[in-house]
Amino acid sequence: MNRMVSQQAASLDGVFHALADPTRRAMLRSLADGERNIGELAAPHSMSFAAASKHVRVLEAAGLVRRRIEGRAHVCRIEPAPLAMADAWLKLYEALWSERRGAL
């Protein structure tokens, strides 16, 4: 496997790992509506800032979120490029799914 393919596979692994958790998916959904601070991301889940921050770190590591610090607030925004990469990978299998679904 060449280096570029290996890097893409690692990035895709990180994206799917981050998306595997329902709390992180909910956080991303919230960020799709605009920037949020970590307290705002934590509130619907009744979790601490520290717990929410751990989820945000996983999203950051996957490249799905960027965080900036404004005073004491950690403000997050969504980064769509990794989602587009995951979507492109899933589209490779779309014909197979459609074909099998039609057979049902």
Describe this structure in words.
Helix 1 crosses helix 5 (81-91). This protein has a three-stranded antiparallel beta sheet with strand order 1-3-2. It has one domain (3-103): Orthogonal Bundle (Arc Repressor Mutant, subunit A), CATH 1.10.10. The chain is of the alpha+beta class. The radius of gyration is 16 Å and the shape is elongated. Helix content is 64%, strand content 13%.
Q: If strands are numbered along the chain, what order do they take across the biggest sheet? A: 1-3-2
The domain tally reads: 1
What is the approximate shape? elongated
Helicity level: 55-70%
List key phrases describing it.
104 residues, alpha+beta, Arc Repressor Mutant, subunit A, three-stranded antiparallel sheet, 6 helices, 3 strands, 13% strand
Briefly characterize the structure.
By secondary structure, the protein is of the alpha+beta class. Helices cover 64% and strands 13% of the residues.
Show the helix and strand layout.
Layout: H1 3-19, H2 22-32, E1 36-37, H3 38-42, H4 49-61, E2 65-70, E3 73-78, H5 81-91, H6 94-103
Antiparallel strand pairs: 1-3, 2-3
